[in-house]
Amino acid sequence: SRPSARRYLLDQGLTHALPIHVRIHNLSAAPVTVTPALCLPGGTPVAAAAVAVPAQGSSEVTWTVDASASLDIAETRFITITAQTPAGAQPGPLAIPLVMDGSLDQHLARHPHQRALPITELGRWHANVSAQGRTTFLTDAGGWRMTAVFPAAQGNWTYPKFTLPDRLDGERDSGFIIRARILKPGAPAAILANPDSRVGFWCPDLFPADGQWHVVYVPFAEFKPGPNGTGMQNSRLEVASWDTLAIGMGSAAAENALEISHLIVVGGADGK
Questions:
Q1: Of 8-22, 65-79, 110-124, 220-234, which gets the smallest average pLDDT?
Q2: CA angle at residue 254 from 248 to 260, to 5 degrees?
Q3: Is the pTM of this model over 0.90?
Q4: How far is CA 36 from the centre of its chain?
C-alpha cells in the first residue's frame, strides 16, 4: 500500500488476497485474552481465534481477505477491526481507510458528462514556486509537463496555477479526474481552487510522489478551506466562483517534475 494522510492506496490485483496485520497492545499489569474480528466494508465480521496478550506486551493477528468486491476506486472505504475481552476494559476499534488504484477508463465509465480541460495551452499556466525555485512548462506526448529546480535542500514546493476556460457548473459537474505522476520523491500531490482568494479550497494527498502514473477522482465535496483559510471552515463551497486551479507538490529532490496527461471535469451518475 501507499499511505497518505487520508487513506491507503492499493493495487487492484492485491485486493484479492489482502494481508491485514493487527497488533494488539496490553498496557495493563495482567495478561488478557482478546477475541478479534475483522469486518469488510458492507460485509459481515470475519472472526479470528482468541489471542492471549501478555501483560505490558503485544500480540499480532493476521487475516488474508478478498476485499476486491468491497473496496472502490473512487470512494474511501474502511476495513474495521474490533475485539472483545471476557471482562474489563474493551480494546478500542481500528478503522483502516482504503481505496483501490483505478484506470482512466474505469473512472470515466462512471461519469456520462466529461469535459477535458485544455492543459496543453501553456498560456493558461503561471508559475507558483518556493523562493528562488524555477519552473518550466511544456507539452509532452499530448499532455503537460512541469520541471522544477530548487536551490534549497528543504521547504521546496511548486503549485503552478491554471486558468479555467469557463466556469464550473455546480448542478452538472461533480469533480475532477486527474491522471498524473510526480517523478521523484516528495509530498503527495494536492489541488487548490482559487488559491489567491480570501477563502481558497483544496484537497491534499491526491496520490504519492512515487514516479508512477495515478488516476484519481476528486469530488468537489472533498475540497475544504485551504491552509490559508484559518477561521473560514464554515465557508460555503461555490464551485461556480472558481476561475483558477493550482496543482502541485512538495519536493524532496533538488530537481523534480510533475506530468499531467488528463485533467477532466466530470459529472452525472456516480457524481449525481
A1: 220-234
A2: 30
A3: no
A4: 29
Reported as a pLDDT band with limits 50, 70 and 90, residue 191 is very high
Report the candidate in 115, 109, 117, 112 with the shortest Cα–Cα distance to residue 268.
112
Widest pairwise Cα distance in the chain:
68
d(CA 244, CA 195) in angstroms, rounded, equals: 7
